[in-house]
Amino acid sequence: MPARDVVSWNTMISGYFSCGLVHNALGTLMKMQNAGVRPSGFTLSILLSFVSFALHGKQIHGCLIRNGQILLNVVLVNSLIDMYGKLGLLDYAFGVFLTMEELDIISWNSLIMGCHRSGYGELALDQFYLMRTTEYLPDQYTISTVISVCSNLKDLEKGKQIFSLCIKLGFNSNSIVASAVIDLFSKCNRLGDSVQLFEELDQWDLAVSNSMISGYAAHGCVEDALQLFVWSLRENFRPTEFTLSIVLSSICTLPPAEQGSQIHALVVKSGFESDPVVANSLMEMYAKFGSVNYAMKIFADLGERDLISWNTMILGLTNNGRVHKTLDIFKELVREGPPPDRITLAGVLLACNYGSFVDEGVNIFSLMEKEYGILPQDEHYACIVELLCRAGKFKEAIDIVHTMPYKPDSVIWGSILYASVIHGDLKLTERVAERIMELEPQSSLPYMVLARAYEMRGRWESMARVIKSMKQKVIKKASGCSLIGIKNLIYTFEENQLQHHGGKDIYLVLRLLIFEMEDKGYFNPHFQNVGAKEWTSSY
Question: Mind telling me which PANTHER family this protein's record contains (predicted)?
Answer without folding.
Answer: PENTACOTRIPEPTIDE-REPEAT REGION OF PRORP DOMAIN-CONTAINING PROTEIN (PTHR47926:SF479), PENTATRICOPEPTIDE REPEAT-CONTAINING PROTEIN (PTHR47926)
